[in-house]
UniProtKB/TrEMBL annotation:
Protein name according to UniProt: UDP-galactopyranose mutase
Domain UDP-galactopyranose mutase C-terminal: 147-346
Gene name of this polypeptide: glf
Enzyme Commission identifier(s): 5.4.99.9
Top enzyme class: isomerase
């Protein structure tokens, strides 16, 4: 079959590779001048440091098959994500752990004591937290909430935490030990030569042809036996029903002679600091040595039509519009909507790859795959 992948990110690349290996002819188009989508990495021209062009990406998963998959295409260096945050004129460790609690309250609590202490300061009158704010007050209490979560979240999402779902915070643990690993997954690492090199290898197959700087229009659909579309769901329908809401990011690059902040990611909890975090990219490649340093200040704001969509908002209003688009999508034939934009979800890389492998397998078995909106 003649198959088209719209998008050369992880979704398009992994589905395309699986279907190419099964003998299909795969064409992949991407509007951008590079492959790898939002995971794209490249060497900074001034410093030679490998930079994560669309924001920091750390690979972490519990899925052994996905871990084996990425390791088949790239060497992964061990990497633990240790995030710091600046708040109230001090630097603290995230996610909230025993060090954070002891430092914040000026105490020397042991694990059990800290657990009891947090239970005292937490608002246990909230039985079933619904909003982000309730979730934070219920589990860490008002002091830690205001220092680490409130300002950051207002900047990140542009709304009050009381108007956001609890699920956004549920991703972050509270630890009563000194484990400051941001993720709690069995496998974690960084691709030695960057994500783009890994995706280039996934795409390196005689049955795959890639066209960069090539935009797909829906009118071209009938030239293909089937299309896998990892572009924006509402974009497929020319935004006929309106636009699905996203947050976009602006990155302000600056360089520094030496080591600017001593870690890869420094969050800023205060609302009056306009950016959410600063990423110092050379700390993502600790096995390399660089004198100079390149950093990105990261600003979040509402996504306008000309911007890159980053975080789907998925609030009540957006979910209603999404349901209308899903109803339209279900009537479309010859296309499968995939990936973070095609299904309007926040997806980590490992989940994207897992879904891509499953989508390809379902297509090979049944000639179709059901999207997971
Ligand atoms: P994308 O990477 O967005 O690829 C879609 C591609 O389709 C794009 O290249 C786009 O140009 C192309 N395209 C769209 N429409 C068209 C069209 N009409 N014609 C041609 N081409 C088109 N995950 C982690 O596991 N760890 C992390 O630390 C992490 N950090 C993240 C940080 C940020 C700021 C963000 C936003 C995401 C992060 N992620 C992280 C998630 C990760 O970026 C996604 O899992 C991954 O990018 C999804 O791949 P995709 O192929 O579905 O989408
Ligand atoms: N968050 C916060 N302060 C921080 C880090 C995270 O308030 O220092 C909140 C913020 O609302 C964010 C959510 O917790 O959207 C989830 O954090 P995560 O690090 O998973 O953010 P993401 O990877 O989505 O940017």
């Amino acid at each position: 079959m003649k198959l088209l992948m719209v998008g050369a990110g992880l979704s398009g690349a992994v589905i395309g590779r699986k279907l190419a290996e099964a003998g299909h002819d795969i064409t992949i188009v991407d509007a951008r001048p590079h492959v790898a989508g939002n995971c794209h990495t490249t060497r900074d021209a001034e410093t030679g440091v490998m930079v994560h062009v669309y924001g920091p990406h750390i690979f972490h998963t519990d899925d052994a098959e996905v871990w084996d998959y990425v390791n088949a295409f790239e060497t992964f260096q061990p990497y633990k994500n240790r995030v710091k945050t600046t708040s109230k004129g001090q630097v603290f460790s995230l996610p909230i752990n025993l060090h954070t609690i002891n430092q914040f309250y000026g105490k020397t609590l042991r694990p059990d004591e800290a657990r009891d202490f947090i239970a005292e300061v937490a608002d246990t009158s909230i039985e079933d937290p619904q909003s982000f704010e309730e979730q934070a007050l219920r589990f860490v209490g008002p002091d830690l909430y205001e220092a680490f979560f409130k300002g950051y979240t207002i900047k990140q999402w542009g709304v009050q935490p009381s108007d956001l779902p609890a699920a956004i915070l549920k991703r972050l643990p509270v630890r009563f030990n000194y484990d400051d690993n941001y993720f709690f997954h069995a496998f974690q690492g960084m691709p030695e030569n960057g994500y783009t090199a890994m995706v280039e290898r996934i795409l390196d197959h005689p049955k795959i042809t890639v066209h960069l700087e090539t935009s797909f229009e829906r009118a071209q659909k009938d030239q293909w036996d089937h299309v896998f579309y990892s572009g924006p769901l509402d974009g497929w329908f020319d935004y006929d029903l309106g636009r699905l809401g996203y947050r976009t990011l602006d990155f302000e690059r600056f360089s520094y002679d030496g080591d600017y902040q001593g870690c890869a990611v420094m969050n800023y909890g205060e609302e009056d600091v306009p950016y959410t975090r600063i990423t110092e990219h050379k700390h993502f490649s600790p096995w390399e040595s660089h004198e100079g340093s390149v950093l990105y200040r990261e600003f979040s704001r509402a996504c306008e039509p000309q911007d890159i969509p980053y975080y789907p908002i998925r609030q009540v209003k957006e979910k209603a519009l999404l349901a209308d688009y899903v109803a339209l999508a279900e009537q479309e034939e010859g296309v499968t909507f995939v990936g973070r934009l095609g299904t309007y979800r926040y997806l980590d890389m490992d989940v994207t790859i897992r879904e891509a492998l499953d989508t390809a397998a379902a297509f090979l078995a049944q000639g179709q795959a059901t999207p997971a909106f």
